[in-house]
Amino acid sequence: MIDETKIPIQNLASRIVWESPWYRVRQDDIRFPDGSTGVYNVVEMPSSVFVVPVLKDGRIVLIRNYRHTLRQWVWEIPAGTVPEGHEADDAARAELLEEAGGVADELIFMQKASTMNGIGEQYAWFYLAKGVELKAQQQEKTEFINVYPMPADEVYQLVYSGQMNDAVSMTALLLAKDRL
Fold first, then answer.
1. Closest C-alpha to 101, from 66, 133, 142
2. H helix or E strand, kind and range, residue 17
3. For a Cys staple, 59 with which of 85, 121, 137, 149, CB 3.0–4.6 Å?
C-alpha cells in the first residue's frame, strides 16, 4: 500500500509552454520515488462557476449553447470563469445574467469540485439560484445561446436519457435535485 501521507512526485522545475486568453499549459520536470525523472503537462485554467437557475414557478432554466469544439448545440446550465481577483458568488451572478438573462433572489453554494484532475487544476463551484427572474441576456460575441425554462421532470429526463452530455452541468443538476 502507498503511504498517502507523503507526496510521491517531486516537482523540480516548471515552465509555461503554451497559453491563450482562456488557459495555458505548464510543463513540470518531476522526480518519482525511485529517483527516475519525467515530464508532466498540466492545464492551468481559472475556476469556473455552474449555476442551476430555478424560476419562481419552479421551472429550471437550461441553455442551449453552440459549442464549436463539438460542432453541435449542447444542453447546459449557465456557467463561466471566475475572473482573477473576483469571488465565485459574484461570477455566478454575472454568468446567470450574461447567459440566461437571469437575476436570482437567492444564490446557494452547493459544492466545489475538481473538473479535470488527471490533466489540470481547474475547480468548479456549483450554485443553485432560486427565485430567478429572466431579463435580457448579455452574451459575449463568441456565445450563441438560447434560453429554455422547463419543468424539472423534463430537465432530469434530458440528463437521464443522455440528451444532455455536458458532464459538469449534469453534476450541478444532480447536486440541486434534492434542494428544489
1. 133
2. strand 10-19
3. 149
CB atoms within 10 A of CB 159: 18
Residues 53 and 83 in one domain: yes
Residues 57 and 90 in one domain: yes
- 75 and 170 Cβ atoms separated by less than 8 Å: no
Residue with cell 479535470: 116
Dihedral angle sign, alpha carbons of residues 132, 134, 140, 143: positive
| Domain limits for position 29 | 10-44
Q: Which of 158, 163, 152 is nearest to 72 (CA)?
A: 163
HEC secondary structure over 21-54: CCCEEEEEEEECCCCCEEEEEEEECCCEEEEEEE
Tens digit of pLDDT per residue, the chain (180 long)? 888 999 999 999 999 999 998 899 999 999 999 999 999 999 999 999 999 999 999 999 999 999 999 999 999 999 999 998 999 999 999 999 999 999 999 999 999 999 999 999 999 999 999 999 999 887 777 788 899 999 999 999 999 999 999 999 999 999 999 999
- Please provide the size of the chain in residues: 180
| 92 and 163 part of one domain | yes
